[in-house]
Specification:
The structure is a homodimer.
Chain A: E1 6-9, H1 18-29, H2 35-44, H3 46-54, H4 63-74, H5 85-92, H6 104-112, E2 116-121, H7 125-135, E3 141-144, H8 145-148, H9 155-164, E4 172-176, H10 179-187, E5 191-195, E6 217-219, H11 222-228
Parallel strand pairs in A: 1-2, 1-4, 2-3, 4-5, 5-6
Helix pairs in contact in A: 1-2, 6-11
Chain lengths: 231, 231
């Protein structure tokens, strides 16, 4: 393995627990709602919404906007059609308030001592900045698809991150809990580290976290990644 | 004064001491060179180089590239024409290694406790990230003209920073040691804070740091700014 210089991290599911965070907030605000189903449905709208941008059918818009559109579509199904604009905006902000996995802050802090660590998420810059400030995620730099006006797996995002640092793609290690993100990163020349997050979709929906040989590294969590990188 | 939500900072001269840092590095590497004149000449090429981009005559290129072109033009005048490409690249990297003013880290740390703090510099993202990591500048987010593919005082930079945070321009406070930067920020609706940096150009070239009434705030340094903002 060539030692990388820059580590870029997927965020939703990899560094923060979107399902658990949304479930906790929904249960508090709307105890009558099936919070697990709501969180799953909200996230299920994510790829189709971005696809409209990726396919070129729609100009780039921030993920905050897409999250809100998906939310507006969901509310009637969950008996929440009466929420007004301010209530919807407040609820949509939950994506700025996601909690980190228990190992994330400690793992990133160790990794930061040796590498430049950046987010590389489809979340917009403001969302990622608010999240990092609240959760204490110690990024050296907040990178987002918004910087490159494109959504992963668009090659511009992976190649753009390397170009920001005048790095060869192989000097960049993409860290994610999703094999499709890592496959796209690899196609663009980046090294890849898979992080197991078996409960990303909640305890009712465990996911397969089997190793894929094409990845450079495979780690249980970010502390285990730091171990493997000698931090 | 409306209390701002986001503080954005000019970097060269405002947060870091470019003149002193370049002089120190040049004296160490090339003691035969007039380091003060070299630093002043390098910086003097900055506005004309960006103007080629701002006028639309040249597509956006990173400041690292402009710094290198200016450097290449200067070296013969200072008897350094023999430097090879690697030596020039290494010297050009001094802009990534600028030292903060003595109050910068402590002042930013206090301001960060209450506000979202971001760079908003014409320096490129990689330059600003390397600088922050080395100097311990605790940005919540590294914003750069590179994000907006434009150089200050292009309105896209000031308005873009507000848009990143879905903020009204008046919720953003631009902090700089340069009245022209602040005037442009003000023209775009931002609040402004002037920071005195009388020795920005070195002890041989003190600059006028008189207050301008149009600014929202006027501070001796970033600690004094934190005092005024109740941090």
């Amino acid at each position: 393995m060539t030692v990388p210089r820059i580590l870029v991290f997927d965020i939703f599911g990899t560094v923060v627990d979107w399902h658990g965070s949304i479930v906790r907030e929904l249960r508090q605000r709307f105890p009558q709602v099936d919070a697990d189903a709501f969180a799953i449905a909200w996230r299920a709208g994510y790829q189709p919404a971005m696809e409209a941008v990726r396919s070129g059918g729609r100009g780039f818009v921030k993920l905050d906007v897409l999250h809100r559109e998906i939310l507006d579509g969901l509310l009637p199904r969950f008996g929440l059609a009466a929420l007004d604009d301010a209530q919807r905006a407040e609820l949509n902000g939950v994506w700025h308030r996601l909690d980190p996995w228990p190992d994330s802050v400690a793992g990133l802090t160790r990794l930061k001592a040796r590498f430049t660590i950046c987010s590389l998420s489809n979340g917009n810059i403001g969302l990622l900045t608010d999240m990092a400030k609240r959760a204490g995620l110690p990024w050296d730099c907040v990178l987002s698809g918004e910087v490159f006006q494109a959504y992963k797996p668009d090659p511009r995002v992976y190649r753009g991150a390397a170009a920001v640092f005048d790095a060869a793609p192989g000097e960049v290690l993409m860290v994610a809990a999703h094999q499709d993100d890592l496959a796209a990163a690899r196609d663009n020349g980046l090294q890849t580290a898979y992080i197991e997050r078996p409960l990303e979709f909640g305890v009712a929906h465990p996911k397969d976290v089997s190793p894929v040989a094409a990845n450079t590294l495979h780690a249980r969590d970010l502390l285990h990644l730091a171990d493997q990188l000698g931090c």
